[in-house]
Structures are given as structure tokens and as C-alpha cells.
Amino acid sequence: MDSGGKWYVVRTQTLAESRATAHLNNQGFEVYLPRYCKQRRHARKVDTVLRPLFPGYIFVKIDTQTQQWRSINGTVGVISIVQFGMELLSIDEAIIANLRKREDETGGVSLVISGLKKGDKIRVNEGPFEDYTGLLEETDDKNRAILLLDLMGRKVRVTAPLENLTAA
Length: 168
Fold this sequence. Notes:
Elements: E1 6-12, H1 17-26, E2 30-32, E3 35-42, E4 45-52, E5 57-62, E6 78-81, E7 83-84, E8 87-88, E9 90-91, H2 93-101, E10 121-124, E11 133-139, E12 144-151, E13 154-161, E14 165-167
Antiparallel strand pairs: 1-5, 1-6, 1-9, 2-5, 3-4, 7-8, 10-11, 10-14, 11-12, 12-13
């Protein structure tokens, strides 16, 4: 469903991004809620869940000339459309397209930088493991990567900042 118009930022209530998205879709708006995969540990169990990439915000495509967009502010789960004075905050279409292009089969946006993906060989450039090479296992939401390094004859999981890594 590709209507005309621009993408705008909408502020949602706490933990209500999905609810707001569903209600806006029911009103005929095109809505984008980018998510990422996060590993959750609870009761000795690890599972993967989709979490909003921008908590408290969603994107809505609106043609302000033809759509009744003011109803968005009264939608369940929505606080308001983000504005500066009387002007709505629009987002470049290329940003939305880039986020959608980085989605994987689960619908989550890949947080891995520079085209690196799980299983790629990487090199640590700074820190206590400088010049070590290992395999990228995953990234987290705190701009860190979890690596498998071969230390003293065994594979060890190590966390490192993404900016300290390059492809090996």
C-alpha cells in the first residue's frame, strides 16, 4: 500500500507502539514500526523477541493535502505527531527505505554495521583483545557485538564495542 505523501514521526505512549500501529492501520494510514531482534533471558530460558528500534516512536505516511491526518492525535496509543511549532516533522523517504532494506526474515532491522553478519570473521582494533580475530555471533541494543574468540585453545564469548571492530 503505497499512498502519496511524506513520512512523519508520531510519538506513542510507553510500550504502545504496536497498539498505535494497529489502530492507525485500521484508519487507513500506512505505518512503519522498525524493530530489531533482542535476546531476552528469563527464568533460565533465552528467547528472541522483536523490540521497537525507536521506543516511543513510529512513522506514518501522510498526504496532508488529501488525508484527514489530525485524527492521528486522538488514536489509541498515540500521544501526538511530532511538530516544531506548527510544522510537522517529516522524515526523508530514503531513511525509511534504508531501514526496510536492512530487515531480515524475522522482520527485525539488522543492527550489524558495515555489512557484517553473524558468522563473519572480524578483527578487534582496540581494547584488551586488540589484534585478535574471531567470529561475529550477534549484536545487542547497546552498540556492542558479541564475538567468539579463540583464547588458550577454546572458544570464548567476548563483548566489544562495534566501533572497535572491522572485517578481517
